[in-house]
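Cross-check.
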Amino acid sequence: MKNKTLYMLLAAMMVLSMVLAACGAPATEAPAAEEPAAEAPVVEEAAPTEAPAAEAPAEEMGEAIPLTLYYMPVTRFYYPSPKEIAEGMAADLAKAGFNVQLELAGDWPTYLGLRREGKLDGLYMLGWGGDNGDPDNFLNYFFGFSSADKVGDDPAAWVKSPEAREGWYANTDVAYKLYLASINPDQAERQALYEEVEQMLHDDIARLWIAHNNTPLVFSSAVDGYVAQPVGADYFEGVTVDGSDTFVFGRGGDSVQLDPAVVTDGESFRVTGQVLEPLYQYEPGSTKPVPALAEECVANDDSTEWTCTLRQGVKFHDGTDFNADAVIFNYDRWHYTDNPYHFDSQVFEYYEYMWGGFDDASIIQSVEKIDDYTVKFVLTDSLAPFLANLAMDMFAISSPAAIEAAGADYGLPGNGAVGTGPYKFVEWVEGDSITLEANDDYWNGAPPTKNLIFKVIADDSARFLALKAGDIQGLEQAVVEDLQAAEADDALYVLTRPALNTGYLAFSYRVVEFQDPLVREAFAHAINKQGLVENFYGAYGEAATNFLPPLIWGHNDAIEDWSYDPELSRQLLAEAGYPDGLSEVHLDPNITPAE
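Predicted model, tokenized:
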């Protein structure tokens, strides 16, 4: 792959071959798949998760479907040009014997919903931006034990079960090591465990790590004071615009929801991070947790109790008081499934995975009121990244009165969010813009810019033209050519966010063929990562060998990436039983998403 034109030509040839096949060329019939062996509860040395057992009869293969690559409907920092990158991947795959069908599965909330429900039956593009600087936030969230896995009090008996939202992948050995890392206070020992987990995921080809991106943001030269955060929502509270009381930020997609407890997408956190605050936050420009709504949190000797002194004199935007009762209201709402405000229609994913589960499965046993401005977190075990977790955007404190008034509609466009932050919610025009206004009574001083507007402009080039025209004053992510133009334009400047992110290509393990490690290895040798980086990330990207970016301790420098070798991919496919390549796959009848 030398340029985008070649990519597009190869993609067009691939589509033409599919059309010819549909017009009468005989389809290659996939051989019987091998079912994965049952997994032992825990083994200290990692064994292949999906060792083949007896061959399944052809009639048990399940429904036959086209081999599909689902691509994201919005630009994100880990995939700056998702459609074009998908077309490039499809061209690479075609050369390696994979005839993929590209599919756009709805808008961003729909795409995330289908992924959560395990209904993206094929390959799908997604990524992760770190919410704190701890490796646990990357690895445990995706590959650790869920609350349903923790049967009994003996962790050695827990078994990682396949989950819809993670593509039905399960590896008990990985999950157990992540558990050990999460409770270990020794950073050197934790680092060794994370490096080992990265090697295990690489060897198992759990996913294909594609790229890390030092995310470029482009601003008008009239803008000053924007702080690009490695973790969490960027800081807008110090932004000034020469000659204007309004800052308009252009972005590729809308927020999903403004209740941060029930979302996982960065475009939602980008907004809620200005309106709501957690007990701790991250030091500007770093991953260090520092006090926010809490003045300090102090642990006991074994770190199973954390006593937090809260900031006094702080009010929510609706005029109600921030205090210990507000903290307990929020944490109890997330923690307990029988809480009247823990609605069945909502999914509190982050709480479940960062704190180990709901109800009795949660590592937070209770949050207790000592007095009006002191709370104590009682844990069932020590948790090394406690403060880092506490500072994450989704654990920001909302007004209890606002939640009580709006019920399950809290966070939706008609209600917005009510917090203590530097900006207050004003209006959400779905698919177009979200408007915030300065909180003149903010405890840390009113922001200098009165109005903050998040404007959706889906097309990357159109967004850059809007910046040049002065319709917006800043944006995240532009195509390589526009970034080069911005660097040469005195009226603009480029600011980068450190690469605390990973774009990846995931397998749905509901597809029988993907359960074969040989097929996954064939995919691993089929994608020209370096070519994708050169064409779509430019100087800001780097090919990924780990899920953890190099910025995070625990990244395993010793891992040797899969070589780009289409011919080897074809050989591996033939060895797996697909000498004519793969264009059709089958769904495992034993894995059925819930309706």
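The longest strand covers residues 364-371. The radius of gyration is 24 Å. Passed to J.P. for a second look.
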